[in-house]
Design a protein that fits this description.
Layout (H helix, E strand, L loop, with lengths): L2 H35 E3 L7 E3 L3 E3 L8 E3 L17 E7 L2 H4 L9 H11 L6 E6 L7 H12 L6 E6 L29 H9 L3 H11 L7 H9 L2 H4 L6 H17 L3 E6 L3 H6 L6 H10 L3 E3 L1 H7 L12 H18 L14
Helix pairs in contact: 3-13, 4-9, 5-6
Length: 349
């Protein structure tokens, strides 16, 4: 072996070692934070839940969030709905949870403040944000049954992102905390992981070589990165539609059987805005038409602004959340409330 080859090997080993130290440190910190703010859920069909009554950051994010008495982001919520209050419950994932956004810039908070300051309604409006990053529709259905409906909401808003049709696997029992079943630190290359994230096209090349050598080891992160948040795969709804539509219908039926109205709030992908799609999902549009569920599809409003309304391929930025709150208030007012009435009354659809 030549001196140059030996030097190259040693350099790679040193660089790998340096990245491994940083990688393990970051994972340790994320696990420590995750263990403080979240826990494996005690509710059937729900993977994780937030620990009530704490304020801290979530893994990989810098903005502290306040978790209330019920384990939701936001201020404390009374189990008994106050008199003269119209209570709206929002069920969703990282979009309505407000991933990487200050509390005042997420649409459930903006909506409540706007409706209460407008002077249009005689009753106080309260918005309960029962969302959490990474949740799918099956989990939201369980949260609705066990935590939201006991709060006696007047309206349930189901926020839908197009990865909600993918039923996420349960937590890895061998991992104390962490949603995606990460490999142990010695089972992967931190240098390759860094290049995967930083160099365009490198991961595809890297996986191609690894698979050719017969060394590919699928992980939860692969599932998350290449399917759960891959826009092209998120649009492939048909294979999951039968089971997903059952869960969506169950949200409607469970809400209405408990005296609550229900609506769907549908978020497009940045990919759809760039490509000029006319509707976010024809399956959802047709389903809500047939089942009598009011639907607010945000695609037209986002297209008026353009792709700059996003932080990434999925999540609207603060500007986007203000647009959502504005249109959601208009929609709720028109479909469910009569402004300035002596008593809040629902509009019969």
């Amino acid at each position: 072996i030549t001196g140059m080859a030996l030097g190259t090997v040693l350099s790679i080993v040193l660089v790998e070692g340096a990245f491994k130290v940083m990688d393990v440190k970051e994972k340790h910190e994320n696990n420590r934070v995750a263990g403080r703010i979240s826990r494996v859920s005690r509710i059937p069909n729900v993977r994780y839940e937030m620990v009530p009554n704490i304020t801290t950051v979530t893994p990989g994010q810098k903005i502290p969030v306040r978790i209330n008495n019920l384990g939701f982001r936001g201020e404390d919520v009374s189990n008994n709905k106050p008199a003269d209050t119209y209570r709206i419950a929002v069920l969703g994932d990282s979009i309505s949870f407000g991933r990487n956004l200050e509390r005042e810039n997420i649409f459930p908070v903006i909506l409540e403040e706007s409706m209460n300051s407008s002077g249009k309604y005689d009753h106080r409006v309260e918005v309960v944000n029962a969302s959490l990053s990474g949740r799918d529709t099956w989990e939201e259905l369980a949260i609705l049954e066990h935590l939201v409906l006991p709060l006696n909401p007047d309206l349930v808003v189901l926020e839908i992102c197009l990865n909600d049709h993918i039923h996420f696997p349960p937590p890895d029992k061998n991992v104390k905390i962490g949603m995606y079943g990460d490999l142990a630190w010695w089972q992967y290359s931190s240098l390759l992981s860094f290049l995967d994230k930083r160099v365009k096209g490198f991961r595809e090349y890297h996986l191609k070589v690894v698979k050719k050598l017969g060394l590919y080891h699928p992980t939860g992160n692969d599932f998350m990165r290449h399917f759960y948040i891959n826009p092209r795969n998120m649009l492939k709804i048909d294979s999951h539609w039968r089971e997903w539509s059952k869960a969506l219908m169950a949200v409607r039926d469970l809400s209405r059987s408990n005296g609550a109205e229900v609506m769907f709030l549908l978020f497009p992908l940045r990919y759809e805005i760039k490509r000029g799609f006319e509707e976010t999902s024809h399956q959802i549009v047709e389903f809500t038409d047939a089942s009598g569920i009011p639907l607010l599809d945000m695609i037209g409003f986002f297209e008026e602004v353009g792709p700059s309304i996003y932080d990434d391929s999925i999540h609207p930025n603060a500007w986007g959340h203000h647009v959502v709150a504005r249109e959601l208030e208009r929609f709720i007012s028109a479909r469910f409330l009569t402004p300035s009435s002596p008593e809040i009354s629902r509009v019969v659809n």
